[in-house]
Structure formats: C-alpha cells, structure tokens
Automatic annotation (TrEMBL):
Upper classification of the organism: Bacteria, Pseudomonadati, Pseudomonadota, Gammaproteobacteria, Enterobacterales
Signal sequence range: none
Occurrences of domain PapC N-terminal (ranges): 36-180
Major location category of this protein: membrane
Naturally occurring in which organism (per UniProt): Erwinia aeris
Keywords, alphabetical: Cell outer membrane, Fimbrium biogenesis, Membrane, Signal, Transmembrane, Transmembrane beta strand, Transport
PROSITE patterns documented for this protein: FIMBRIAL_USHER (PS01151)
Residue ranges constituting the PapC-like C-terminal domain according to the UniProt record: 756-811
PANTHER family registered for this protein in UniProt: OUTER MEMBRANE USHER PROTEIN (PTHR30451), OUTER MEMBRANE USHER PROTEIN YFCU-RELATED (PTHR30451:SF10)
Protein name: Outer membrane usher protein
UniProt-listed InterPro entries: Fimb_usher (IPR000015), Fimbrial_membr_usher_CS (IPR018030), FimD_plug_dom (IPR042186), PapC-like_C (IPR025949), PapC-like_C_sf (IPR043142), PapC_N (IPR025885), PapC_N_sf (IPR037224)
Record localization: Cell outer membrane
Family as reported in the entry's similarity comment: Belongs to the fimbrial export usher family.
Membrane topology qualifier: Multi-pass membrane protein
Length: 831
C-alpha cells in the first residue's frame, strides 16, 4: 500500500519535472525581458494547440487578482489581495499593484510619503521611487517577495510588528467556560451534589471587544439551590497608534498609586504591551561618545545582551529589555582598534519610566458593585509617570469627586550601584461622612519602595516597601465602605513588605524569604512570614533530585498559624516523578506519597496516598488536553471523614461567519485564531498548543499572545495519507481579544490519470491548468489532453484555464476506483 502511494507521488513529480525540463530546453530568448518557445521541438501531436503564455515572459503573471502572502525581507506577513496589471509602456510586462492601503500595511515610514510616485492612474506604488526596493512573485508558493531597505520601514523587533500590521480580526461570538460537577459524602451525613461554572461571553465588532462575565452555582443542600449572575459587563478597544487602550463599562481601577475599587464608566490608559518587547517597562539608558564608527557590546557576566553599531559622536541606547537588572558591562570597539570599557548598575521598581516616555492612566465614572448598583458619586482619576532623565522619573495622580479628593506626587530614582528607590506622598480629603464619624476627615500617606540586585553574591532584594498612613487618611474604598456600613473598619496604619532571594549555584541551592507586617488603627496587627530553601542533588543513578523545606507563620486577629512543609521529588522512569510531602502544623501532621506521570502531550495523571493524624488519605486525578475542552477527573478519600468525586471541563466555542469550532482555553475572553483547513482532522499547532480541525475543517487556537507575532502551522508529519498542504505556516499579530482568521490550502483526495475532451472532441491546449472549487491548482494538461489529477473526490467539479481565463469545466464520476493505471475520460463543457 505504502509503495503504491510513493509511486503515485513520484509519478506526479515526474510529470511536472518533465514538463518544466521541456520548457527550459526548447525556449530561446527573443527580448531582454521575454522568452519565446520553439514548439517545433516539442514532442506533442498537436503543436498548434499549445498554451504557454503563462511561461512566455520571465516572471510574467497574468493580469488579475491574487491572494498572496507578503514576504518583507525576512518577515512573512498575512495573505493580502493583490491586483496585477500590465505596465503602461509594455503590454507583455505585468506588475503587482501596491495600493496605498498595502503600503500602509507594509509599514513604510510616514515621512516617506511625499517622495513616493504612483502608476495606473495613481493607484499603484512605483517601486522605483524608493532606491533599493524590488519585488518578485512566486505563484507556486503564493508569495509576493518585497525587498525594502530597513531604513524605509518602521521600527521592528524579533516577533513584533509595527501597528500598521496588527490584525483586528474578524467579527464573531465567543462563549468560554469552566464547569465543574462534584459529589461529596461526609461521614454519617447526606451527600452534597454541587455544580459550579464561570466564564465569559462576548462579541467582536470591528476593533471593539464586548464582554460579559458570568458565574453560576447549584447546591442541593443550599436553601437557594440555584444562583446565576452576570457579574460584569464591559468593552474595550485598542488605539494602536497611541499605544493605548480605551475601555467602557464595569472595571476595577487600574492604578500604580491608589488602592483599587470597582466602578462603572470610562478608562483610557497607555498599554506597554503594545510597545516592542525591548521598550516595555523601565530600563536604563546607556549613553557615551564614539570616536569613530564603533561596535557597542552590552553584556552581563559574559553573556551578550545587546550588540549594535553606532556612528561617530554621542550615542544613546534606549531599547534594553525591562527585565534586565544588576551590573552591565559596556564595550565600545572603535574602528581604529581602540577600545572603551565601562560598567553601569541598574535596578527596577514600579513608577520608573524610560527616559523621554510618559505613561498615563485616565478614568471617569461612578463606583459600583457586582450587582451593578452604583455606590457613590461620580469621580475622575488621572495619573502619569514621566521619564525625566536617565535616572529620574516623576509620577503622580489624583482621584476627585464632590465629597472625596486625593492627590499624590512621587519620584523614582535609579541609584545605579545602590539600587533603585521611589518615594511618594498622598493627601486625601473626605467630607459629609455618616455618623458617628466626623463630618470631615483628612490625612496623609507616605510610601517608600526600594529594589537592588547584588551581583557579587547572586542575590536580589526584588522589593522592599514601607507605607505609613495617618489615622485620618482614607482611601476611596475606605470612603465607600464608610457610607455603605456607617463605619470605617480596617483603617490601615503601617505596612512593611520585603522579598529576598539568594541563589547558591555552586551548591545547586536557593533561598527565598517573604515577609509582610501590617497594622491598622482599629484592629489587631497581621504578620505573614515565609522562608523556603531548595536543594538539588544527584543520588546514585537518580539525577536532579529536589528537596525543599518551607516554614511559615501567619498572625491574624491575635492568633498564630505556624508550620513547616517538606517536599522530596525523585525522577522515576522516562516521564514519571515520585514525590513525598509532609506538613507539620501545630499537631495536625500529615504525610503523603504520590506518583505523577506524563503519558504524552495530552494526558497526565497522579495518584497519592498517606495519613493525616490518625486518618488515611487517598486521592488521584487524570487530566486530558482535548481538542474541544480540557477535562479533569479528581477523586479523594479521607477515612472516617469524607469521600469526593469531581469532573471539570474548561473550554469554549467561537463562532464567526467563516465558521465555528469548540476548543479548549484557559484565558476566558482572550485572543484566539480561527483556522480554516477546509478538511477535517488536519493537525494544527502553535507554541505547544495543538488541535485537529473539526468535521467542517475548522479549528481554534486559543490563549495566543496579543501584539506579538504568532506562528500557526500544520504538522505535515501527521497529515492524513490523502491530504497535502501547499503551505504549512501562517503568521498573525493580533490586537487584544481579537478573533484572527487564517486558512491553509489543503488538498484532499486520491490521485489518478485522466484524459480531457472538449465538446468538439478536441483536447484543451498543452499547458492548460486545472483548479478545484477552492481554486487550488491540481494538474497541468499534457499532450493530447492527458493529465495527472491530485485531490480528486467523487462528484466534484473542476475548471480548466488557458489564454488567461477559465474556459471549461468537468465533473468527476460519483464513484472512483482511484487506480492510477485506469485513465478517466472526462468531457469538459465550455463555459
């Protein structure tokens, strides 16, 4: 069977190879830009019935409309509709029409527009107006290749495209869910059956994302068995060229300065996710002076972070990644052979902004709750952070309503070798407070934040903070609670936070400390302390054994919760892990052993057993990553206490005019891609996510990144035997929440030899092409109408083209043997 398949594919390639070889051998040049074929040398019966027009001009493409991928230098862009016209001075020459919309999509710098010239009545770009720009097309790969000097293009970064190439997606509906069913039986009590669910429903209309969050619960033991709520209604859209996000509806205040609260209204904020990865967040600026054209290398502990070339004179490098911290080594290699070296130290804390950049957040509306009721008067909020210079940032903001106002101002400083520091001050005023509170209350709050990485010891204090609030200080949420409950319970006083990590690489060990202390003016203090130590080692033939210990203390309302947690992990087999977990908590000790195994990319499970006090424990779960949903089954038992069994599913459905599909998802309402293969059971994957197209040839890849170039491909090694894909990769850069759309040209069906005949008994000309209903080329007519057809299916109709247009069509029989040795005689009816 496999031999026959291989022979059929070999015969197909042989026919095409022979045909192209004939064209190459018997063509002779007649013009600088064209070729003429000496048909007298072709070994065909009817030399007068030959159509080689599509090959008669080097690179010639017949006028018409084509859907092609764009290849800009090394970057592949999504398919676009491109018209082909004959040139104004040579009817035998054709060129693609790069319209103004396509030029904008390509990402040419706006300042170049005045120097551009156009042809075909001003509709198409004259590529000669940009020196160094060239173009060529390859219909075999459905690609238009454009070579454009980088200086003409907007800023690009690896896997990131400028806003002109962002895709808003297509209109559609979505419904994402997490649903769980559980039955629990407690010792000597009734069985409790519970069903819960939550998720997001939504619609995409142009650039707008309309969303509604929902949750529901059914409990047969509750007095109100069924509860269903729409907890939030909201919408947003991207403002790409402003790198901002506009929102409307119910939101939580998104603030770096003020405490958050929920409200209904409008929001407008800059979105760092829209910036290139190297321009997001805060990163230091590196400046210097080059004596000549120089190579600048920035490294950390020998690892090159960035390498670039600068012209002679002052230079500034501003696009370091925001995650870089610690000491950086800078090496400037001059063209004359001399070298400059220096080091800088950097750290990052919130509120630091890159030099020259401004980040902002604006909001307006009324406070509200999850029942959609307004709970206060209208307010406005605004805040900003401005990168004043390489080391200084200035930030501040305000919340203002008729009865409550708060004003904040602060500064951030990169102290280089000494870390980074920010300080801010907030003054709040509240009036018309309910009894028994005073009618008017005011107070201030101070905050200090610090961050430092110690390269010498491979340790990092990622964040250390202190905040003090006067007794009269009220946040907006405090003010709302005072009006709602008649008192301001939980008025914060002091808060300390410290997070410290230490790596001991030579010992293959690490330590992590997290400590927070919070006090209030009107209730007991709260302390949280966690210390974790982890050690990796080898034990005989076992590699990367992990031993971890965590100690904690939680002090809340005057009571302490102290404990120690131990964990030991041993690799076992090819994909399994043996684990031991022990918990020691004020006499409530437990010991548990478990085995985890990853069966394949879609299936994993864990079984465990142990003791808790005097009772036995047993549990297990199984997870399946399905094409339509993620399924989890979980069972647990504790002696003389309870037994439980649960089943959960997480997924969604996305529906558009181009098709619909069920799919798994973990980020409700997020960005996704609808893939059209036109054929069922085609394997589609993207960055670890994989699925099969459904019965209608549709598949959805969910949880993909926004404002980031996503690569979706067909797994050609897993294609069905009767399917072929002419292209296996597409790329899209989608805005947040978009439903992207892309299609693969997949031909499915068997292959066979056939003979085409017109109604007058003659054959279509040698070189005519055959396309299926999806306009995919499936064969080329050879001598006397013979043709090798691929992708044939019973009863389908195909069309034959020559002289630049479709001329006739034929229908395949309802029953096909698929035997290549038997030629089909197919009448072709003129159109």
């Amino acid at each position: 069977m496999s031999v026959n398949i291989i022979l059929k594919k070999d015969i197909l390639w042989l026919w095409h190879a022979i045909f192209l070889l004939i064209l190459c051998c018997f063509a002779r040049s007649v013009e600088a830009r064209g070729i003429e074929f000496n048909t007298d040398l072709l070994d065909v019966k009817d030399r007068a019935n030959i159509d080689l027009s599509r090959f008669s001009q080097a690179g010639y493409i017949m006028p018409g409309n084509y859907t092609l991928k764009l290849q800009i230098n090394d970057n592949e862009l999504p398919e676009q509709s491109v018209d082909w016209f004959t040139t104004e001075d040579n009817e035998k020459e054709s060129k693609p029409c790069l319209t103004a919309a396509l030029v904008n999509f390509i990402g040419l710098k706006p300042e170049l527009r005045p120097q551009l010239t156009w042809w075909h009545e001003g509709q198409c770009l004259n590529t000669d107006s940009l020196p160094g720009m060239s173009q060529r097309a390859d219909l075999g790969t459905n690609t238009l290749y454009l070579t454009i000097p980088q200086i003409y293009l907007e800023y690009r970064a690896p896997n990131w495209d400028p806003p002109a190439q962002w895709d808003e997606g297509i209109p559609g509906l979505l419904f994402d869910y997490y649903a769980s069913a559980q039955t629990r039986h407690e010792h000597e009590k009734k069985t409790d059956n519970t069903f819960t669910g939550n998720g997001t429903a939504g619609a995409n209309v142009g650039p707008w994302r309309l969303r509604a969050d929902w949750q529901g619960r059914y409990d047969n033991q509750a007095s109100n068995n069924l509860n269903w709520d729409w907890t939030r209604f909201y919408a947003w859209r991207a403002l790409p060229h402003r790198h901002a996000r506009l929102g409307v509806g119910e939101h939580a205040l998104f603030s770096d300065i003020f405490d958050s609260f929920t409200y209904t209204g409008l929001s407008l904020r800059s979105d760092d996710n829209m910036l290139p990865p190297n321009l997001r967040g805060y990163s230091p600026e590196i400046s210097g002076i080059a004596k000549t054209s120089a190579r600048v290398v920035i490294s950390q502990k020998g690892r090159v972070i960035k390498e670039t070339r600068v012209a002679a004179g002052p230079f500034r490098i501003q696009d370091l990644n925001e995650t870089i911290s610690g000491e950086l080594d800078v090496r400037v290699e001059e063209q004359d052979g001399s070298v400059q070296t220096f080091s800088i130290n950097t750290a990052s804390v919130p509120y630091l902004t890159r030099p020259g950049m401004v980040r902002y957040k604006l909001a307006a509306g009324r406070p509200s709750n999850t029942q959609h009721h307004m709970e206060g008067e209208g307010f406005v909020n605004g805040e900003f952070s401005w990168g004043v210079s390489n080391g200084w940032s200035l930030y501040g903001g305000t919340i203002a309503s008729e009865e409550y106002q708060a004003l904040a101002l602060g500064t951030g400083r990169d102290l280089m070798a000494f870390g980074a520091l920010s300080l801010d001050f907030t003054q709040a005023f509240a009036r018309r407070l309910p009894d028994p509170l005073p009618d008017t209350q005011k107070g201030a709050s101070w905050r200090v934040s610090y961050s430092k990485r110690f390269d010498e010891t491979d340790s990092e204090m990622t964040f250390a903070g202190y905040r003090y609030s006067e007794q009269g200080y009220m946040s907006m949420q405090d003010y709302l609670n005072a009006h709602k409950y008649g008192r301001a319970y939980g008025n914060g006083k002091e808060m300390y936070t410290a997070i410290f990590s230490q790596q001991l690489r030579d010992w293959r060990a690490s330590f992590y400390l997290n400590y927070s202390h919070q006090t209030w003016w009107d209730k007991p203090d709260n302390d949280r302390f966690t210390l974790t130590a982890t050690k990796y080692f080898d034990a005989g033939r076992l590699r990367n054994v992990s031993l971890s210990a965590t100690a904690w203390r939680n002090k809340y309302d005057g009571s302490n919760d102290d404990g120690i947690y131990l964990s030991l992990s041993l690799p076992w087999g090819n994909s399994g892990t043996l684990n031991y977990n022990g918990s020691f908590n004020q006499g409530n000790n437990s010991h548990q052993a478990s085995y985890f195994n990853t069966m394949d990319e879609r299936n994993n499970y864990q079984i465990s057993g142990g003791v808790a006090g005097q009772e036995t424990l047993a549990s297990g779960y199984y997870t399946y990553q399905g094409d339509r949903a993620r399924i989890n089954v979980n069972a647990s038992y504790q002696g003389n206490s309870y037994s439980a069994l649960s089943l959960s599913a997480q997924g969604g459905v996305t529906a558009t005019a181009q098709g619909a599909a069920l799919h798994r998802t973990s980020r409700p309402g997020g960005t996704r891609m609808l893939i059209d293969t036109a054929v069922k059971d085609i394997p589609v994957k993207s960055y670890g996510a994989d699925t099969l197209s459904n019965h209608f040839g549709k598949a959805v890849i969910a949880d993909i990144s926004s404002y980031y170039r996503n690569r979706i491909s067909i797994d050609i090694n897993a294609l069905p035997d009767n399917a072929e894909a002419s292209a296996s990769v597409i790329q899209r850069t989608l805005t947040e929440g978009a439903i992207g759309y892309g299609g693969f040209k997949v031909v499915t069906g068997s292959k066979t030899m056939a003979v085409l005949r017109l109604e007058n008994g003659e054959a279509p000309p040698f070189g005519a092409t055959v396309k299926n209903s999806q306009r995919q080329e499936v064969g080329i007519v050879n001598d006397d109408g013979s043709i090798y057809l691929s992708g044939i299916q019973p009863g389908i109709t195909m069309r034959v083209s020559w002289s630049g247009k479709e001329q006739c069509e034929f229908k395949l029989p309802e029953s096909l043997s698929g035997d290549i040795s038997q030629r089909l005689l197919l009448p072709c009816r003129l159109l």
